[in-house]
Every structure is written in structure tokens, then in C-alpha cells.
Amino acid sequence: MLCPCCGRENHDLRRGCLCGARAIAAPQTDEIAELPRIGRALVGMACAIIGWGGFVTLWLAPAALVGAYASWTAYRRAQRQPKRFGGLAYARLGMLLTALALPGLVLLGGYRIHQWHIVQQESARAASRARMLELSLAIQAYQKQHRMLPSPQLTELRAAGLVSGPITDEWGKGLRYRPTGELAAANPAATPLITQYSIVSAGEDGVFGTADDLVLQDGVFITPPQAPLNSR
Questions:
Q1: Residue 160 lies in a domain
Q2: Does residue 185 lie within any of the structural domains?
Q3: Nearest C-alpha neighbor of 45 from the set 79, 84, 106, 86
Q4: Which of 112, 133, 152 is the last residue of a domain?
Q5: Torsion of CA 137, 143, 145, 146, to 10 degrees
Q6: Both 169 and 193 in a single domain?
Q7: 134 and 70 share a domain?
Q8: Which pLDDT belongs to residue 154?
Q9: d(CA 82, CA 163)
Q10: Are 63 and 51 in contact, with CB atoms under 8 Å apart?
Q11: 3-state DSSP assignment of residue 196
Q12: How far apart, in Å, are the Cα atoms of 175 and each of 112, 142, 149, 156, 201?
């Protein structure tokens, strides 16, 4: 062994070197002691704690899933190879936190998605009503100019430039227009004029004749009539 002070070769520094240096402790060896790894257990616990923030902001909820996976795998490793992997207590805490948080986050997420769906459908219904009113105004303008209503195909409105593009509701379903009544002209000898009409949107389900239909009768929205029950 070389003396760290003078560089002379000395096999036993505990007795002292010629330069007067003496060893005060056992010499270090090249053997490296491997400590148990606890990184995954810490990551799992940290993600589990962050996942609780999902009750405030749902964007943090996926961290609970990451925490559950990391904590579980860290727990299994620490059990199987305790000399290589540690952090058993951290892994248990992470699993406990995620087990408490995940059911509540699932329920909260379902509720938030349901509320979002309701808002989206209300927005679609409002936009559909606006399109139906625009079509009603075009029909009234055509009626005022020609003293008659357009045909159910609405080709007259397109020819007159009163409408353009597809005549659909917000769900992409075509609006159903139909004249619904007659009013005799002032001159009894004249041909009766059709003056009543309805515009119907099939609603969210896309099926006409159901409770979610939007019905515009002569420029006024009314409650859709209930479909008759099938009799056996």
C-alpha cells in the first residue's frame, strides 16, 4: 500500500511510515454497498397525493392511476426482493391513498361528464331553435311576397335566395317543414290560401315523433304532441 503523504510503498501504515504518517482507520476497499431502491415507491406515493387534486381539477385525476400502478409494483418488488427494493411503507401509503381516491374520482368524473353532456345538448337545442326561427322568417317573407306558402320541399325559398345550404338542425338532421291548415280567401270564389305551417326538428335522438322533438308552429315553439301508444 502506498503512503498517501510521501508515496512510499508501505504494507502496514498502522505501524507508521518513514515520513511519520500513520493510519488512523482501516483502509477503504473497492467493494460498493448497494442500497435498496425506493424510487418507484416514492413516485407512487407522490402521484397518489397529486391524484387527490382531481377532486378540484379533474386533469389531475389520471395521476391517481399512475400512483396506484407504481405503488402496487413497488410493493410487490419490495416483498419479493427486500435487499434490492425498499420503500415498503411508502408503497403501502400510496396504495391506501389511491384506494380511497379512485372510487370518488370515478363518480365525480361520471357526474362531470353527464353535466357536460347536458350543457352540450342544451346548446345544440338553442342553436337548432335559432335555425328553425331563421327558416320561419324566410317562409314568412316568401308568404308576404307571394301570398302563399312554399311547398314542403322548400324549392321556392332556394330559388328566391331566401335560404342557402342544407336546412338541418344542430344534430345534422333535416328539418321537417309542412303546411298544416287552410284559411279561406277574402273572395269566396278564390282558391283558399294555405297560411299555417309547422317546422319540426327530430331532436337529439334523430327520430321524429318523440318527446325531445322541437316544434315551431306558425312562428311559435310549442310542446311536441305525444306519440299515440300502440294498441294490442
A1: yes
A2: yes
A3: 86
A4: 112
A5: 150
A6: yes
A7: no
A8: 87
A9: 76
A10: yes
A11: strand
A12: 31, 18, 16, 16, 5
b/e 63-82 (16+ beta carbons within 10 angstroms → b): bbbbbbbbbbebbebbeeee
Q: Are 72 and 119 a contacting pair, CB within 8 Å?
A: no
Task: Report how many helices (DSSP H) and strands (DSSP E) the chain contains, helices first.
Answer: 4, 4
Residue 24: exposure state from Cβ atoms within 10 A (0-12, 13-18, ≥19): exposed
CATH code (residue 169)? 3.30.700.10
Res 30: pLDDT? 56
Tens-digit pLDDT profile for residues 53-86: 999 988 899 999 999 999 999 999 999 998 888 8
Q: Tell which residue, 117, 143, 136, has the closest CA to residue 214.
A: 136
Beta bridge partners of 193: 183
Q: What is the pLDDT of residues 21-47, one digit of tens each?
A: 666 666 666 566 677 889 999 999 999
Whats the size of the chain, residue-wise?
232
Based on the fold, state whether residues 156 and 107 are members of the same structural domain. no
State the pTM of this model.
0.60
Domain containing 204 equals 124-222
Contact between residue 216 and residue 199 where contact means Cβ atoms under 8 Å apart: yes
